[in-house]
Structures are given as C-alpha cells and as structure tokens.
User: Fold this.
Amino acid sequence: MPSNTTNELNERMLISELKRNSQKALDNIYKMYAKRLYAFCLQYTKSKENAEEIVEDVFVWIWVNRCDIHQEETLRSLLFIRAKHYLINAYRSHINSPVYEDYVNYQDELATDDIQQHMEYEDFVHQLRNALTKLPATQQQIIELSKIQQVSNKDIAMKLSLSEQTVKNQLSLGLKSLRKELNKVPFLFWLLFFVN
Assistant:
C-alpha cells in the first residue's frame, strides 16, 4: 500500500478518534502538522516565539472545537486557515511590513476552498481599486508604488520629485483613508496590505 494512502487512512482514523476526545490522537495530529505550521507562521511573524505561540493556539483551538470539526479526511486546510486567523493578531502587533506576494503564493498552493479564496481575493482587489480611485492622485501613485510595487519611499520621492517626508505623509494619509473605506473587508489581504 502506498505511503500517502496509509497516511490518509491514518489521518482519517485520528480525526475520528479526536472527535471522541482522544488526547493521543491530538498528539499524533500535532506531530503530523506542527513543523509545517511553524514554518508557515515563522515566515510571516519572523519570530520563533510568536510562531510557536500561534501553533499552540491552533492546536488548543482544535482540541476545544474537536466535536464541531466537519473534516473527515484531513485537517490540513483547517489547521492552516486557523493559523491564518491567528496571524491577523500577530500582524496587528508585531509585523511592520506586508508579505503580500508570499501570501498569494501560499494561497495558490492551498488546494481546499481555492475557488472561494480566489473569489475573496478578486473581491478584495475590486474593492481596493475602487477605494484607490477616491484618493487624490498623488496618494494613489504613492500607494501603488509603495504597497503594490514595493518601491522604497526614497525611490518614490525621486520618481515623483517629492521629498521623502512628503511621501511618508501622503502614504500615511492615503492608507488611513483606505482603512476607513475598507473597514468591513474581513480578509487577511487587508491586513497584509495596510499594516504600517
């Protein structure tokens, strides 16, 4: 029997046991996924402690909600989605720059719920573009260059013939306006894009 089929059968049994309150099943699921979740979290938090804390929070959540888990074959998607939610708080308090491209690449690799995530992403982009058009032209240019093209403030200042302080001020004002406009977008892209 191929090893991946064996793993699938094992995980299915572990999920079933987990739902029947097996601490041992949780431990085995932890062994299967903790390293991958940690690596995923670490690339965003850049902090071993924060990444470890998020992984712990994910497995505490899994244990607390074990009776409500609908997945039967694999917990991979659920675990990474929970980690993504916990990363939101990490972004709010610890992350100083977006990792937009990395996140998009991760979403492309995540098989489950691809269509829904693609629709959420398209909706986010649509709302973002609409909100950008409501800003003054200079703020639109600066946000486009800074947050989408990842150009440094110094290079933006040279390109637009502005002082670096003006670029910083206009970027801050523009992002505040966008936050207000998009304050109901419940999506990680919002946080990745707008955290200063």
Summary: Residues 21 and 70 are 15 Å apart (CA to CA). The domain at 101-194 is CATH 1.10.10.10 (Arc Repressor Mutant, subunit A). The chain has ten helices and no strands.
